[in-house]
Amino acid sequence: LPPFSSPQYGRKSYMVKGMAFSPDSTKIAIGQTDNIIYVYKIGEEWGDKKVICNKFIQTSAVTCLLWPAENIIVFGLAEGKVRLANTKTNKSSTIYGTDSFVVSLTSNVSGKGILSGHADGTIVRYFFDDEGSGESQGKLVTHPCPPYALTWASSSVVAAGCDKKIIAYGKEGHIIQTFDYSRDPLEKEFTTAATSPGGQSVVIGSYDRLRVLNWSPRRSAWEEAKPKEIAHLYTITALAWKRDGSRLCAGTLCGGVEQFDCCLRRSIYKNKFEMTYVGPSQVIVKNLSTGTRVVLKSHYGYEIDEVKILGKERYLVAHTSDTLLLGDLNSNKLSEVAWHGSGGNEKFFFDNENVCMIFNAGELTLVEYGSNDILGSVRTEFMNPHLISVRINERRQRGMEENKRLAYLIDIKTIAAVDLVGGYNIGTISHDSKIDWLELNETGHKLLFRDKKMRLQLYDIESSTKTTILNYCSYVQWVPGSDVVVAQNRNSLCIWYNNDAPERVTMFPLKGDIVNLERSNGKTEVIVAEGVNTVSYTLDEGLIEFGTAIDDGDYRRAAAFLETLEMSTETEAMWKTLSRLALEAKQLHIAERCFSALGHVSKARFLHETNEIADQVAKEYGGDGTDYYQVRARLAMLEKNYKLAEMIFLEQNAVEEAMEMYQELHMWDECIVVAEAKVRCVLRFAPLGDSV
């Protein structure tokens, strides 16, 4: 039991009037009539230790309480105030005040707006964020009696009380519907109400009875379902809905807690999945073998017609009257996009794990899982997935946050490449023969395609150059996670470790046909079927990994990989390449590591001292410190560009440092020139009569 402020009066000196879980269910807030709210940390497991983490002392009794968002508790007081308690700052403040006892509190489905009901019948609305709805704040309406049963559904506000009437109000307080039970001798006053998580159903509790209202999107009206009557249940004092909408709990005056299974219908799909329709716009999909659950919900409140599981039983597809719902069961990424009647003639392709390809009436539409906007839409008559390539942020590159690209056929001899982020064309490739296969690399900057004459072409999108790299090509694929190309030419295995130089190809003789390419555990293998036997050819992982890291500008990854290799002629060449690129990118710590590996002690020491200067400047002024004049001058010295270093010093009037540089290098003539220039400058600006 929670502590109490007056121990001498015993445990009955207060009543608990409000109770709410935090959004993550790891804390619980308790509102009491002895003018205090306690917040308990209850943990994630049943046996975790329970401790008080917050307490908020008030000036009057707490009458109701809810927890709509993280760190924000909203509660009502007997004196009429509606207040906010912040669990992060441990402070409370008044949102608004009235002169009437607060009898009920509720929030909208998103938790960004609240309603309070008062003893004089007033219902007040307040928004933390109106989400662009433009709805007014303040007094919404005056209900005929105190609205003890008050809830905010997705389409209206439902209120009820001791007059035995349930009234649904519109967005600005006008009456939409009234359900009058005042002439029913068996009905008692309504005491509490709750809205389903989807906002499509409302349950109102009274004596021995639960009344259910369901919103009909097609009629735009509330429809009353058959009431749930339970003899000797007595007055229902509390209602709470499970977050996925599958369960409803009711607490009674006599201390009982009843749990109800809430679903419109339940079905088994292919003996592998259980579909539970908990509302018109919400379906719970449960994998019977693993027990994992996905809640598929229409954010616009549209009724879901049917749910299908396609693409090797991994992807969800469902239609509503105006939208299309898609989902990935493995990643739990769900999407809802605007989609108007197409007669169910769409064809779905799930070859890409990040995006769903939908063909309908000569149009290709792309929907990224987890996004509620259509990624892109183009006209094409070619529905073969081998003639379409989509890359969605598959390999991050330095300086590029979003990289989403598409390549597809305009006609049988023309390829178009599109930047899906900007929505513009980045390349059009015309060819002299029919194209039967194409694929972008993971960064979307290179395109491989093959024609009917078995010629393999490499197209550089940035430079708009096309190169024929192989004839009689029977197999081709990008190595996953890299820009390395593997192909077969009759009896030869061809590998391009650096496709910027397509003439440099590594070839091995083959006796069979390539059937697959596998990359796992730091090893890349080409699987070849030689008659009844299967043979694997291992690729040079060093060339693959290092080249990919360099292409992506990920020099830390390149250095980390080189550290795993023994020093050899090839490894030394890689360290030299990395040192040059790291210096150009001003990644000085990596450059220092490279010179250490190469045994260039003097350069490594010089860079170490430079890094110390840069780190000190970064600590004092922010940034990475590489723009500081001493760092820039030292880098110029490292490149043996002493005149540039001198200029950088003199720009900062650091003449002494420029002279010291030349003295250390024994470049006496240059040092004297700098000194003479300084003397001339002093003489020029010295006042007449002064001695120099």
TrEMBL record:
GO biological process: intraciliary transport
Highest taxon in the source lineage: Eukaryota
UniProt keyword annotations, A-Z: Cell projection, Cilium, Developmental protein, Repeat, TPR repeat, WD repeat
Alphabetical list of InterPro entries matching this protein: TPR_IFT80_172_dom, WD40/YVTN_repeat-like_dom_sf, WD40_repeat_dom_sf, WD40_rpt
GO CC list: axoneme; ciliary basal body; intraciliary transport particle B
Major localisation: other
Domain IFT80/172/WDR35 TPR span(s) in chain numbering: 574-677
Segments crossing the lipid bilayer: none
Subcellular location: Cell projection, Cilium
Family stated for the protein in its record: Belongs to the IFT172 family.
Descriptive protein name: Intraflagellar transport 172
Organism: Chelydra serpentina (Snapping turtle)
